[in-house]
Amino acid sequence: MTTVLTIAALTLREAARRRVLFALAVLTVVLLGLSGWGFSRLAAESGGSALTSGEARLTASIVLNLVMFGYSLIAALGTAFLAGPTLSGETESGIALALLARPIRRSQFLLGKWLGLVAFGSGFVVLAGLAQCLVVKATVDYWPPQPVAALALLAAQTTVLLTLAVLLSTAISPMASGVVAVGLFCTTWVAGVVGGVGASLGNEAVARVGTVSRMLLPTDGLWRGAMNAFQDPSALAVFGGADGEAFPFLSAAPLTLGYLAWAAVWVALVWGLAATSFVRKDL
Q: How much is the pLDDT for 102?
């Protein structure tokens, strides 16, 4: 276990060396600044007092979900394009071969890399999301009903995408693995929106598009659970209850324990495939 943690720490150091932390910090500060200005204008429009009207509170809730989607997208881009160079890049350069010449199993090497990337991606999205919640609280006095659950689900979403990127990086080039992972992330989100529209219209065939996509890649399902925890409960009542699924930044219901269990099983299965592929790979 010490070996795995050492490799995880080296992976975090490598992320810092590549200035990924600096780039994410700059993007986060810019997004915090822009959203803080926008939320302050919202408070000014509602009379300068903190969310005295339901309309202002509803708007803050929806805009918060929109901004959080921006953070999840930044985390997706950062982790997907970091996972490829971290694993397959070191494999192609021979660095991994030098490390694996020591008494270190390939599965330990892969687990250490994965843990380091999970700590990096999850840490970023949790800290950035918490900072955003504090900005919203300071500007419009809105605090999400379940912030801990929401941030945990965002971290889980990042872990799912990162695990997929690690699997892809064992089979294809670093750039291609990042492109495919982000492409699947965006495709699943679009399929979820289409499925939500189908559900609101009562079209089961279209609604099934979102359901199937969330089972194949749980990023959109976890994102919808996070939205439900971030949003004000009155938002769904205003947008017609279950019909609110037609809005891309509203979630009609919290996640079930069964779906969370499936997401955990999905991560374990995909990581197992990645380990099998990496062990059999000709270095």
A: 66
Closest CA to 216 of 194, 247, 191, 197: 191
Q: Are 272 and 100 in contact (CB under 8 A)?
A: no
**pTM (two decimals):** 0.86
CA distance 58 to 55: 5
Residue among 71, 64, 185 at smallest CA distance from 127: 71
For residue 77, which of 164, 181, 190 has the smallest C-alpha distance? 181
Place of tokens 């999970």: 118
Find the DSSP H helices in the chain.
2-17, 20-45, 54-84, 90-93, 95-100, 106-140, 147-169, 174-201, 204-216, 219-230, 234-238, 257-280
In the chain, pLDDT over 70 holds for what percent of residues?
85
Secondary structure in 3-state letters for 85-126: HHHHHHHHHCHHHHHHCCCCCHHHHHHHHHHHHHHHHHHHHH
Residue 267's pLDDT band, with cuts at 50, 70 and 90, is very high
Mapped onto helix, strand or coil, the DSSP state of residue 144 is coil
